[in-house]
């Protein structure tokens, strides 16, 4: 019960890492507002309620300020406040600056970066009532370069530095802001990234080769790190970037 009595908003809670985070926080005693653009998030909420825990659902686009407002308002209306926001929703498409269409660039920047602004703008006033935590799920690709993924790596790099700057801006409000950078994690997102390549199996093997621990991470392993960072156990940690990538960036 490491987050007993807390309310947490999790975006991207319909799949992969976001779903694992929502389930873990519920098991550890939090009331969860689970949000996603996909109605898969209803399954996450049903799973939480089946365990006798509390959850509310919001289906909405994190790239839209009014939807982000609705996510935060749901926390207030359903559970009376908000103590932590964990932003896991994101998209990716391949492309270099020469091959990527402007439309794809703008979509990725909107969902992966503008959303950080929209969600934070909505959440900070409520979080500052009692103090709280914001955690952005960034990526190891926000720390090092990669090929053929220009918009995703640009957005994730910006998210990492935005967490640092927000940590400075909102320390006086009692809000801690951190980023968590997973490496390749076994989720539909990772599978889709291989399927975008000409030879998906080769892409999978090349990706595995870059991980010193020799395997992909699990959503549960990322959720464990998120629980630590967003709970009071990390009460002196703000502006930090925690890397959980099996050693990918250690080279
Ligand atoms: N899986 C990996 O290898 C990996 C590696 C590094 C970082 N990450 C990051 O982890 C986070 C979670 O990724 P995942 O692997 O669980 O992916 P996933 O595709 O399994 O889940 C992402 C969820 O975000 C939702 N989503 C997409 N666009 C949205 C929007 N506009 N509004 C609201 N929800 C939206 C999707 O519907 C989906 O349920 C992402 O931020 C991703 O960039 C993943």
Description:
This protein has 251 residues and is α/β, with parallel strands linked by helices. It has eight helices and seven strands. Strands 3-2-1-4-5-6-7 form a seven-stranded parallel beta sheet, with helices on both faces. α1 (16-27) crosses α8 and α6 (188-195) crosses α7 (200-209). The longest helix is centred in the middle third of the chain and has 29 residues, at 102-130. The radius of gyration is 17 Å and the shape is globular. The mean pLDDT is 98. Bound molecules: nicotinamide-adenine-dinucleotide (NAD). Nicotinamide-adenine-dinucleotide binds next to α1 and α6. Residues 11-12, 14-18, 36-38, 40, 61-63, 88-91, 111, 137, 139, 182, 184-185, 187-190 line the site of nicotinamide-adenine-dinucleotide.
Indicate the mean pLDDT: 98
Structural class: alpha/beta
Globally, the shape reads globular
**Strand content of the residues, in percent?**
15-25%
Please count the beta strands (DSSP E, at least 2 residues each): 7
- Run of helices and strands: EHEHEHEHEHEHHHE
Sheet with the most strands: spatial strand order: 3-2-1-4-5-6-7
Number of helical segments with 4 or more residues: 8
Spans of at least 5 consecutive residues with low confidence: none
User: How large, in whole angstroms, is the Cα Rg?
Assistant: 17 Å
User: How far apart, in Å, are the first and last alpha carbons?
Assistant: 37 Å
Give the fraction of residues assigned to helices.
40-55%
């Amino acid at each position: 019960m490491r987050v007993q009595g807390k309310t947490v908003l999790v975006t991207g809670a319909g799949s992969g890492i976001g779903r694992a985070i929502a389930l873990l926080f519920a098991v550890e005693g939090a009331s969860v507002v689970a949000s996603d653009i996909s109605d898969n998030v209803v399954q996450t909420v049903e799973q939480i309620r089946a365990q006798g825990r509390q959850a509310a659902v919001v289906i909405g686009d994190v790239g839209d300020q009014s939807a982000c407002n609705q996510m935060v308002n749901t926390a207030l209306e359903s559970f009376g406040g908000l103590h932590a926001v964990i932003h896991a929703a994101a998209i990716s498409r391949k492309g270099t600056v020469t091959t990527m269409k402007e439309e794809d660039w703008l979509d990725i920047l909107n969902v992966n970066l503008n959303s950080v602004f929209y969600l934070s703008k909505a959440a900070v006033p409520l979080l500052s009532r009692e103090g709280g935590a914001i955690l952005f799920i960034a990526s190891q690709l926000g720390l090092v370069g990669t090929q053929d993924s220009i918009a995703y790596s640009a957005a994730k790099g910006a998210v990492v530095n935005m967490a640092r700057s927000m940590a400075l801006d909102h320390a006086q409000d009692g809000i801690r802001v951190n980023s968590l950078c997973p490496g390749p994690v076994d989720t539909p997102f990772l599978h889709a990234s291989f399927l975008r390549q000409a030879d998906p199996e080769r892409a999978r093997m090349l990706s595995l080769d870059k991980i010193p621990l020799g395997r992909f991470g699990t959503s549960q392993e990322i959720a464990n790190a998120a629980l630590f960072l967003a709970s009071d156990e990390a009460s002196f940690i703000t502006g930090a970037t925690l890397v959980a990538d099996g050693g990918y960036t250690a080279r």
